[in-house]
Amino acid sequence: MTREGNAALWLTVDNFWGRYAFGFFALFLALGIIVSTHAQDLEWRFSNDRITFEQWTSYFDELAHRPGAVLTEQDQYYIINLFNDPSQPALYVFTKPSHPAYPAVVIRAVTTKNGRSQIVHHGHYVGDKDKFDTWWHEFDALDKKNIDNAK
């Protein structure tokens, strides 16, 4: 699936968030196609936020080659969409060398708890913690916007 061939699936916001182009994520929320997963059931690959470059690389390779994975490329990111993975549906955003937080990954998933949907995210970084934290908090406003749009 390419961005050009499926433009309707992508966010077209001409502001700061537009560059993230998390179209699949917004589409699933907007249509109410929300996978019921409980936050306590989500399994994170690594127990620590800081990981090695080898762990980051093998994680990317594993997810990108998982059956059903949809890999898209942005200027500063690789986005791996695994919303169709019944074991752990999520969106994985890996930084590219041009991104200040490189190498890092943020995992975003929709969970349902007490009948309410919410977005949870988790991440790992190899490099500078402060740059990762800055990038990490950029997702807060996006998550709120996506939940508000889905209501």
Q: Topology of this structure?
A:
Blueprint: H1 23-30, H2 53-64, E1 70-73, E2 77-81, E3 91-95, E4 104-113, E5 116-125, H3 129-150
Antiparallel strand pairs: 1-2, 2-3, 3-4, 4-5
Helix pairs in contact: 1-3
What does this structure look like?
The protein has three helices and five strands; from the N terminus they run ααβββββα. It is of the alpha+beta class. The chain has one domain. It has a five-stranded antiparallel sheet, sandwiched between helices. Strand 1 (70-73) and strand 2 form a beta hairpin. It is globular.
Instruction: Quote the beta fraction.
Output: 15-25%
Q: Helical stretch count? A: 3
Number of domains: 1
How large, in whole angstroms, is the Cα Rg? Answer: 15 Å
Poorly predicted runs are: 1-40
Structure summary, number of beta strands: 5
Going across the biggest sheet, name each strand in turn. 1-2-3-4-5
User: Termini separation (Å)?
Assistant: 27 Å
Mean pLDDT, to the nearest integer, reads 75
The H/E string reads HHEEEEEH
Describe the main β-sheet briefly: 5 strands, antiparallel
Q: Judging from the principal axes of the Cα atoms, what is the shape?
A: globular
* Helix percentage range: 25-40%
Indicate the structural class. alpha+beta
Keywords: Membrane, Transmembrane, Transmembrane helix
Transmembrane segments: 20-39
Tell me briefly what this model is.
This protein is an alpha+beta fold and 151 residues long. The chain has helices spanning 23-30, 53-64, 129-150; strands at residues 70-73, 77-81, 91-95, 104-113, 116-125.
